[in-house]
Amino acid sequence: MPKHPAVACAACAAVVLLMVAGCAGGGEGGAADGDLSGQTIEVAAVWSDQEQVAFEKVLDAFERKTGATVTYTSAGDELPTVLATRLAGGAPPDVAVIAQPNLVKTLAKEGALVPLSQETARLVEADFAPSWRDLGTYDGRLYGVAFKAANKSIMWYDADTLGPDFRPPLQWDDFVDVLRNRADVGETPLAVGGADGWTLTDWFENVYLQTAGPQMYDDLAAHRIPWTHPSVRTALQKLNEVLRPEFIPGGIASALQTEFTGSVVKVFGDRPSAAFVYEADFVAAAINKSTSAVVGEDAKLFPFPQIGDQDSVVGGGDTAVVFSNKPAASALVEFLASAEAASVWVEQGGFISPNEQVQLSDYPDAISRSIAEELKGARTLRFDMSDLMPTALGGTKGDGFWKAMQDHLADPAAVDEILAALEAKAATVYAAG
Amino acid sequence: MSVFSSRKSHPWNDTEGDTEPGGSPRLALLFLAPALLLLLVFVAYPTVYSIGRSLFDARGTGFVGLGNYATALTDSRTLVALRNTVIWVVVAPTLVTSVGLVLAVLTERVRWAAAFRLVVFMPLAISLVASGIIFRLVYDEDPDRGLVNAVLVAGHDLVAPSSPYPGVRPRDGALVELPGGGLGSVGQVGAQDVLAVPLTGFAPDALPAQAAPAVTPGAGTGLRGLVWLDAGAGAGGVPGRVDGGERGMPGVTVEVLAGDQVVTTTTTGDDGRFTVPDLAPGSYTVRLPATNFAEPFRGLTWLGPALITPVIISAWLWIMAGFAMTLIAAGLAAIPRDALEAARVDGATEWQVFRRVTVPLLSPVLLVVFVTLVINVLKVFDLVFVIAPGSAQEDANVLALQIWQVAFGPGGGDQGIGSALAVLLFLLVLPAMVFNIRRFRRDRS
Predict the structure, then answer these.
(1) What is the DSSP string of A43-96?
(2) Count of CB contacts below 8 A, A vs B?
(3) Does the beta carbon of B231 lie under 8 angstroms from any beta carbon of chain A?
(4) Which one is the CATH code of B2-19+50-140+303-444: 3.40.710.10, 3.40.1370.10, 3.40.190.10, 1.10.3720.10?
(5) For the whole model, what pTM was predicted?
C-alpha cells in the first residue's frame, strides 16, 4: 500500500515545520559548569533496560553539575534509522551516542555534526589512546568522543558444565582440540547464534585480524582489497575448524535458527546444550536478563584464542556526537569524555571505559576488570569491521557481509560464489559512496 | 462496510434518489471541504510527493529520472520480494476466503454459533507483531519449544523409533561416506582380514548396559572386525587406538558387500566384535548402514529459507480467517432462505445447495472479501518482519518490507529507491482498487 511511506513523508513535513519553529530559539555560547540551568537537551542512544538506568545516572550527574535538563530517548538497535529519519525531517536529537564509526564519519561528511570544542579535543588528546580518538575524527577535526568501549574478543563458558579442572585454551589449536574432545564423547560444546548475521561477522573479524594481520584488516575494512582476496578464504578455512556441525547443538541448520540471546541461553540456561559461546562483553547482560546463571561464578570467560603469535582484540565503541549548537549539548559531550562521567557507570558494572584515567581497580568485579584489561593491554586493537563499513554492506539483516557469513556457515563449499557475490555488493556500495 | 448491505438496500440509496440535484454549489463545497482537505493532505499530496520523490536520488537533490526504478528492479532482493508478494497475492486471499466461507457456513448450523465465531474472530484483535511472535514460537525448530515440531517429533517417534547410536561418526579416515548412505570401509577387504572400526561422537555413558570392554579380534578365520566407541582424548585415551576402558558398541548392523550386492549381514556382539566366518575368497566392502547412526528426527526447519513464506501465510490465515468468516456470515444471513428451501425441496443434496445456490448468491460478498484481502496482503509487513529470523529474512521478503528496508532501514536510507518501490506497489494495488470502485458504482446504479 503506497499510503504507508507517503504518510511518513507527510509526517516529515510536519516535523520540518516544528523544527523551523524550534530553531528560532537556538544560540551560541560557552559551556561552563553550573550556568546551563533552564536549558533542555535531548540525548538519543541504543541503551534500554538496565543500561538505560545506568546511563540516566550519568545524565543525572551532569544535570546536578550544570543545572541543564537532559531527556533520554532510547532508540534501540534502530538508532541509525531513527537518526536518518529525524535528520531528514530536520529535527535530530541534540546529542546521540552512536555505535557505528562509519555512521559518525558519514554524518560528519554530510555536515550534520557540530565539531567539538578545542577544550574537549585537548581532554580527549590527553586521556584517550589514538585508536579511540580516530573513531570520532573526520578530516582532522574531532566530532565525537568514545564513551563506552566494547570488547568483542571474548569466549564465554559455563564453569559448571566444564568442571573445576578446566583450563581455558589460549591457543586456537588447543581450543579446537577441546571442542573435538568434547564432541567425541557425544557433546555439542559450541553454541553459535547464526540467525543474527553480526555474531558470525564478529567471529570472522577475530580470525581475520589474526590470520591476515592488522594492515590487511584495515585494507579489507576500507575495501582496498577485494573480498575475493586469498586472505579472506584463508580466514574462512580457519574459522571452519571451529564452526563444524558436530560441535554445534543441532548442527548448522539449528545454528542458523538460533539468535544471539538463544545462543547464550544454550550455554547458561537451565538445560544447557553447549559449553562455550563466543561474543562480546555484553553477553554478561544477556546472561543476567535471560538466565539464572551468575556472571563470574557460573559464567566465566577467556580471551578469543590466539592464532599464531598475534595478540589482538576486536573492539567496538559508542561515540557521542553533537547535532545542535546548544551549549548544553557540547557541554554534555565534554562531560561524557571525562573520567568522572565514566566512573558513574563503571561503578554500576557492565561498562568499560576507553578513558585512560579510569583505573582497572575502579571496576567493581573481576569479570569487567579482566575485560577492560584485555582491551587496554592488547597489542593490536581494531574496531568491528562491519561497523566500519557502510551499513548497506555491513549492517543489514539478510544482506551484504551478514548474509555472506550466514551463507558460508550454511554451505562452506560455495565459498567462491559467496565471496564473489559479496565483492559485487561491496563494489556497488563503495561506488555509490 | 458495504458488504453487509451489498445485496439488498444501500443506506445512501434511500436518500439519494429523492434528493433534488442542485442546491447551492457553495454550500456543497463547504460540506465537502473537511473531507477534501483530509484527502488532499493525507492521500493526494503524499501520493504525488512519492511519485516525484522516486525520480530523485538518495539525498533528494539530484534528478535521476527512472534510474531508481532501474536500480530497484535489477536488485535481486527486490525480485525476491516481488516473487513472494505474487505468491502471497495468489495464495493467501483465496485460502483465507475459502476457509472463511467454510467456517461461516458451518457455524450457521451449530449451537453456540456466536461463541464459536467470537473465538475464531479473536486473533484479529491481537496486534500483528504479537501474533508474529506467537507463531515464531509455534514454528520454533527446537521441539522443546516449537509446538509444531513437538507434535511432529512425538508422532514420528511413535511410528519409527530412533537409531541406537544417533550422531555417531567414524574417527577421521577410518571409514568413508558411501554414495548410497552409510559408512564403508576404506578400500577393499579380503575374506580373512581384520578390520578396526573406531567410532566417535557418542557419550560413553549412553552405551547399552551390556556393552563390554572392546577387544581386538585375535587369530581365527573369516572376516573379523571390532566396532568400538573411540572416546579418544576426551576420555583420556588416544584417538584411533583401543584404550583401556573403551567399550565395544553392541548391536551395530554390519553388511558385507561384493560389488553392489549385499553378501551377508551380521551384528556386533557385546564387546563390539563381529565375524563373518565362511566367506568365499575375494574382495569385499564392509558397510555400516546409515540406520545405525541416523540422527533422531528433530522436526522440520519451518523458519528456514524453504518453508518461511508458507509458514507466514499460515499465521496470516489464523489472523484473518475470522475477518473473512464474519463478513461472509453476515452475507449468508442476508441470503433469501426460500431459495435454499426450494433447492432442498427439489431434492438437491447439501453439497449441491452449497455449490449451486449458496456460493453464487454469496459471490458479491466473497468478491469484496477477496479484494479487501488482496489489498491487505499487498501491505503485509509486520508478520514477515517478526516471524522470519535474520538468516531467512531475505527469502521471506515482500515488497512492503523491502520499501521500509530501503527507505528507512539501516541499509542506507535511500528514500528515492524506496519511493520508486512504493510507486511500484501502488501500481500493483491499483487494479484491486479500480475493481472495488467499479463495484461500488455498479451497486449504486
Answers:
(1) EEES--HHHHHHHHHHHHHHHHHH--EEEEEE-GGGHHHHHHHHHHTT---SEE
(2) 162
(3) yes
(4) 1.10.3720.10
(5) 0.81
